[in-house]
Amino acid sequence: MLRLFFFLLLVLAAASVAAFLAEQPGQVTIAWLGQRMDTSVAALVLIAVGLMLVTWVVAQVILRLAMALGFARQRAEQKRKEHGYETLNRAMAALASGEEREAKRLTGRAAALLPDEPLSHVMAAEAARLAGDEGLRREHLAKLAEREDTAFLGLRGQVEAARRQGRTGEMLTLLDRALTLRPKSRWARLSRLETLKLAGRWAEARDAIDPAVKAGAVGSDEAPRMKAVLGHCMAVEAEAAGQVDDARRLAHASHKDLRGFVPAAILDARLANLAGERAKAHRILKQTFVKRPHPDLVEAEAAIFKAETPQARLERLKALMPRGDVPGEAKLLLGVAEAEAGNEDAAHALLDPLTRAHDDSRAMAAMARAVEAIRGPDDPEARKWQDLERTTPVRSGFWQCDSCANMRANWTPLCPTCQAFDSLRWIGVGEPPVEPRAPALADTDEHVLLEGA
Fold it and tell me: Where in this chain does the record put each HemY N-terminal domain (predicted)?
């Protein structure tokens, strides 16, 4: 009703204007480009109104066409996204079913359809990894790293790719960038610490422990041992560089903070002995032997007191023995020392129970050595024990990695097989072998981009 009213009002106004123009006739002369045209005012108004109407119609046509084209583009964009997400879903299903080639093809298509969708690059990187296409994986990770909202995710994938290829320098550069983005990231703190260890940058690794503890990446109960072992590594490095004072300070601090750590005790005792502090060196070795009997401690003690007789060495070894229940390793070492001092009965009393209780080549070897020391290597009983030594499996007397179970004769900071830090444990007589730890999720390659920070 209101529209009808306004329409009638408009018609009335137009009629009034037309009547006014009819009652007021006039002439209009137009001269343009050498031409002259005479017309009435009413005709001129009619022409103007006609031009305005044509302009309005043309504008409406152009506007409708633009709207139609925009809608078409919007519809095409919507269809492209729908197709992209459908392809992405199919790619996820292919990944889950282990179809590497199909997953790689589909994720590549999804990434092309959804170039601004981070998930498409995540899935494409994972598919490329499964397909063994490291170059394509790094390309998708780089695209993630370029975006402000997914930079950390891309950096994390790049770190893992660099780790698998052993590029520790690149890993540290990427981890520094990741920590700039997210300083409280547990993954970044722990990864940086582990990478510094892997690179043998002991001092930097020790400095990285406290920030890692603060971020919750390293337990406060783990930190003291880690610092002590790293301090020992720094002491070894300082001694090799001729920095004896620094080596002594670091070695003693490592032994003091981690009693029972054999490598640190031996280094601390040796440096103390070189400085003329033989009594201190003996005290260091005794403190460690009580906690962890080890043949290297006995050898280190013998190196300090080189001119001693077998009986004197025996008495000194007895002084090292722990009180109470004596471990099998200590009994084995003491039994050999008793035999070398000529005490056959005492040697048998210590070694016979070990040979009966433990099917271990070292126990047989110790008995063979004891009999040889007293009766000579050609004695029939000595040959019997020598034969048993050769036919009995070795079950002790080595360092074993608690991460991969690899066995070694000497301690090293990093396991040569799996590169785990401080993972070697001494296996003495009668001690069970270590149970390899299951690798943490952060140490594996599976779905690394989908983990939390």
Answer: 26-132
In which region does residue 167 sit, left (phi positive, over 0), alpha (psi from -120 to 50) or beta (all else)? beta
Count of CA atoms in the C-beta half-sphere (13 A) of 366:
32
Second-level CATH architecture of 220-293 = Alpha Horseshoe (1.25)
Question: How many helices (H) and strands (E) would you count in the chain?
Answer: 20, 5
Scan for tokens 């409708």, then name that residue.
Answer: 64
d(CA 161, CA 155): 10
CA dist 256 and 250 (Å) reads 10
Measured N-to-C along each axis, helices 278-291 and 295-304 cross at an angle, to the nearest 10 degrees, of 170
CA–CA distance, 24 with 19 (Å, rounded to integer):
9
- The residue ranges of every structural domain in the chain are 220-293, 308-394, 396-443
pLDDT tens-place string over residues 125-156: 666 666 666 676 777 677 777 777 778 878 88
- Contacts with 341 (C-beta within 8 Å, 6 or more apart), sequence order: 310, 311, 313, 314
Give pTM, 2 decimals: 0.72
